Amino acid sequence: MTEVVLGVCGGIAAYKACELLRLFTESGHAVRVVPTASALKFVGAPTWAALSGRPATTEVWDDAHEVPHVRIGRQAELVVVAPATADLLAKAAHGLADDLLTNTLLTATCPVVYAPAMHTEMWENPATVANVALLRSRGAVVIEPAVGRLTGADTGKGRLPEPEEIFTIARRALRGVRPDLAGRHVVVSAGGTREPLDPVRFLGNRSSGKQGYALARTAVARGARVTLVAANVALPAPAGADLVEVGTTEELRKAVLEAAADADAVVMAAAPADFRPATVAERKIKKSDSGTAPTIELVTNPDIAAELGAAKRPGQVLVAFAAETHDALENARAKLVKKRADLIIVNEVGVDRVFGAESNTVTLVGADGTHVDFGELPKDDVSDAIWDAVLTRLPPQVAHDGTA
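That's the Coenzyme A biosynthesis bifunctional protein CoaBC sequence above. Prediction below.
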């Protein structure tokens, strides 16, 4: 049974940690809740003890003969702090240890995941930004907060991500997924664009966005700063990703080009419409009395991946996707050259194939001659394989002292 420590800090989002605790215990993990003193003002120790089946204390002096301030951290196989306040992040970054949770963090040698929750101004304060960067540089996973309603009437970035999303990232850390994308900014596009015909109709495709969301989710778990540009996706936003919602191909193009300006890698997993109506009717197109169908003139949409390839900076990695119904490899290789991509992910698609499924069967083709066939895998595992390939093509990061 895996030993998990759930640290809980004093914020209004502390109540959400109860659901996170339930997800861990129902998955067979043994969980020790270590709250701060202020956390107990929101959720009491009896609640944590009842839900975890273990005592919950804030003090290093309780059961001193068992040396809990050292033992808990040493025995932990995963530490998750949710919510993590600005105060806790500062203490963890600078090695302060004035209660049981901070002592546990100082002695833990296992993966550590922080899920911050605070007001936007606190999250964006230069001190917090520096503390988060320091923790990430040491290998900790610090999840980007969600955007939404905060305490009171405030809205902005700083909301605790949903427990299910935190659990997904924590579970990957428990599996040994390293934060090897820390310090990188990656852009992922997902979903399918819709081109309006009239106020009620559009041209679209069957893309569900699941592969793109899996790419974003796994990149977050590996420590990256992730911008996810999503076109018409009906899925919960992955915790830690900056979500940009778009509708049409032109909207997708503008958002991706803007985000790609400082990105280390861009993965175009979205399915942009190749064509759009030349004109959009201002009113709903009606059936004629004669039963004759109207003629719709189409024009070609811009090739976003090709535009990214033409503007690619030295060291930037571009990954394109080729969803094909026939001659998949031949078509994909032609696209790889045309788009000036570093990698292209090939899959054969159709009704009841790939779209909306939880798994995918792909071939990875590289501009360097790489050719790897993957059997049917869960989309998260496909995503990890893609990020592995991206990492081998990214230049080494330069540390603050100038070393690689």
